[in-house]
Amino acid sequence: MSYNVQPLRTQQEINDFLFCLRRNKNADRDVFMFLIGINSGLRMSDIVKLKKKDLISSKNSRIVEKKTGKTRILYLSSLQDLIQEYTKDLEPEDYLFPSTKGGHIEVNTVYQMFQKAAKLLGRDDIGTHTLRKTFGYHYYKKTKDVATLMEIFGHSSEKITKRYIGINEDEISGTLLNFRLGF
């Protein structure tokens, strides 16, 4: 089986995924993690380690990405009401996504959770990167600003970014939808 993780391309796909997450034992945590992911474009390895202080220290908080070591500004002002509600009973040093075993939830645990949701939805293209790709896909569809998205993701070319979020396939499919010659 190939590893072909795709974004959630429609609001209905996002709603369906949320529907599955809301049935989890730790639904509040899991839904909040999903919403942070699709609204930030962070890698799951950075999301699981977030603490309350990372999101409430200033309007646009900064974190250091695990993979790149680069500082990344989090633009989450549109989620402030949700963040305030979710973190109201947490201490600044508390993980946002705690494990039932202590510490923070592991990326592999999130992957397994997403695989359960994917199975319920009849999909085989869901993984932890689905959130990052969903952010990128919808950001691009809304803004058509691939240069800024490339910067957000830390990619070296627009071509890489468009391929990463599955835009090339969509654009080719869309342009060829009613393309016919010789009839």
TrEMBL record:
Keyword check for Thylakoid: no
Keyword Amino-acid biosynthesis: no
Any one Gene Ontology BP term: DNA recombination
SUPFAM superfamilies: DNA breaking-rejoining enzymes
Domain Tyr recombinase residues, every copy: 3-177
Pfam families the UniProt entry points to: Phage_integrase (PF00589)
Protein name: Integrase
Native source species: Carnobacterium inhibens subsp. gilichinskyi
Molecular function GO terms recorded: DNA binding
PANTHER family: INTEGRASE_RECOMBINASE YOEC-RELATED, PHAGE INTEGRASE-RELATED
Swiss-Prot/TrEMBL keywords: DNA recombination, Plasmid
